[in-house]
Design goal:
Radius of gyration: 24 Å
Largest sheet: 10 strands, mixed
CATH class of the largest domain: Alpha Beta
Order of helices and strands: EHEHEHEEHEEEEEEHHHHHHHEHHHH
Number of strands: 12
CATH topology of the largest domain: Spore Coat Polysaccharide Biosynthesis Protein SpsA, Chain A
Strand content: 15-25%
Number of helices: 15
Helix content: 40-55%
Distance between the termini: 69 Å
Shape: globular
Length: about 375
């Protein structure tokens, strides 16, 4: 079907976002045809700043329910499609231009557009951690947000997997205890937690270094057998993290291997196993797992968290270490060079190159 230009409502819920809201709204210039801001109780200059961008500002009394606030915001939209962002999100200029192109030539049969969400970056600005979120939806479908905390947009229909990225630029200024407190209140009231609630409650406990409690709720989540596959895999990784912090190595390994029950091995878990064996000076076993990580194809349709390093340069850097420890310096150099293609300015890669060229030079001189 021939594409057409669509009109878009940007809907946001905000609270005390004076440090980031202008940056976010500046980054979307030309994308939304209207901007709907729902304020859940700001005590700073957020609303004053927002008036420079829109007059559609609404108040929502906070009831410890993110889905309720987002659904209220979506209810104020009037355009054909609804886009959502958080105040500490932005579109880079490149992604803004991609979005404008998409907007100008849009297939009206599309109900949902999902986009990569870039959450962490290395010192060179390359994304190191990402996942996908449904970002742009057809308003007439009346899609609803679900979940008081870590809410999600329940969608169906014709979905477009876009390469337009949303970049998260958090300031660390948000209330880090907020979500945990919401879960604790719900728990105290005797509310039954869904599998998704169990998983995200466990995440909050892990973030607060309450490792034993986190383990309890991750295990309870997995026992339901009803979790989304990506959350199941992620829970295995987080359980391994908890046991590592508690120095309980056997259980750590148990959950790394358990991740293989839910999907083919992921590079993140292969690197975990490689590191375990490297640390134990079992270099051949370490090589096996790191090499496997280099041979895996990145799952294109995966919506789960992805650590880019594990799918690119990190296993090669670690293979360099393993082979060096075994005295296989040429192989070590070969893998360090592969890592260097991805990370030419990485200090460890540069050090390895200098060190191995010295070792190989001495070996050649002796020959």
């Amino acid at each position: 079907m021939e594409g057409q230009k669509i009109r878009i409502s940007l809907c946001m819920i905000v609270r005390n976002e004076e440090a980031t809201i202008a940056r976010c709204l500046d980054s979307v210039k030309g994308i939304p045809d209207e901007i709907v801001i729902v304020d859940t109780g700001s005590s700073d200059c957020t609303k004053e700043i927002v008036t420079e961008f829109t007059d559609k500002i609404f108040d929502f009394i906070w009831i410890d329910d993110f889905a309720a606030a987002r659904n209220f915001a979506f209810g104020k939209a009037t355009m054909e499609y609804v886009l959502w962002l958080d105040a500490d999100d932005v579109f880079t200029e490149c992604d803004r231009e991609k979005f404008l192109k998409l907007k100008g030539d849009f297939d009206p049969l599309v109900d949902v557009v999902n986009m990569p969400y870039l959450l962490a970056f290395d010192q060179f600005g390359a994304a190191t951690f990402s996942l996908r979120r449904n970002r742009l939806v057809k308003r007439s479908k009346n899609f609803r947000w679900i979940g008081a905390v870590h809410e999600y947009l329940e969608v169906y229909g014709h979905v477009l997997n876009s390469d337009i990225c949303v970049t998260h630029k958090g300031t660390g200024g948000n209330d880090s205890d907020r979500n945990l407190k919401i879960y604790e209140k719900r728990k105290a009231k005797g509310e039954a937690f869904s599998p998704r609630d169990l998983y995200y409650y466990a995440n909050e406990l892990l973030d607060h270094r309450l490792y034993n409690q986190a383990i309890e709720f991750y295990q309870e989540f997995l026992k339901t057998g009803q979790g989304w596959v990506e959350d199941n895999i992620s829970a295995c990784g987080k359980l391994a993290d908890c046991y590592q912090k508690l120095e309980r190595n056997d259980e750590q390994l148990q959950y790394i291997f358990k991740s293989f029950e839910y999907a083919s091995p992921r590079a993140e878990f292969c690197c975990r196993l490689g590191f375990h064996f490297l640390s134990a000076k079992q270099y051949e076993q370490g090589i096996f797992w790191y090499k496997l990580a280099t041979q895996l194809e990145k799952p294109i349709d995966s919506w789960g968290p992805m650590i880019e390093a594990c799918w690119t340069w990190l296993p090669h850097l670690q293979l360099c270490v393993c082979y060096d420890r075994l005295g296989k310096h040429e192989l070590a150099y070969e893998h360090n060079e592969i890592a260097r293609r991805y990370r030419p300015e990485n200090t460890q890669v540069i050090y390895n190159k200098t060190y191995l060229e010295g070792v190989l030079g001495k070996i050649k001189a002796k020959q």
